Amino acid sequence: MELLPEYLKKDLPPLYSTKDQKEPMAVIKYFTPDANWTWYIIEGEEQENGDWLFFAYVIGLEKEYGYVLLSELESVKGPLGLSVERDLYFQPIPMSFLAS
Fold first, then answer.
1. pLDDT tens for residues 52-63?
2. What is the pTM of this model?
């Protein structure tokens, strides 16, 4: 599965562009099907090396905001060896519905 198709690249706000917004949106959802990790992508930007850097709300061992590279998501394997997937049915949602 392609984690970041072209149409999502166009819809992704650049890094730091939503920091002053009252209600930023999560625009992409990634998850591990065999572990309890989820990344809600808020912003992202292509880096000089071609990789993408995302700002995300991460639900894993804790709930926190942070940065993650697309290459890191592509390399993650869950306990059963399954790769990170993109939720194909996810629709952008205000962060207030996710972050508590």
1. 999 999 999 999
2. 0.94
3-state secondary structure of 73: helix
Show the CA angle centred on residue 85, arms to residues 62 and 57, nearest 5°: 30
3-state secondary structure string, 29-80? EEECCCCCCEEEEEEEEECCCCCEEEEEEEECCCEEEEEEEHHHHHHCECCC
- Asked if 1 and 30 touch (Cβ cutoff 8 Å), the reply is no
Q: Tell me the C-alpha distance between 20 and 16, whole Å.
A: 9
Q: What span, in angstroms and rounded, lies between the C-alpha atoms of 65 and 50?
A: 23
Instruction: Measure the CA–CA gap between 78 and 13, rounded to whole angstroms.
Output: 28
Rounded Cα distance, 16 and 41, in Å = 13
Distance CA 84, CA 91 (A): 18
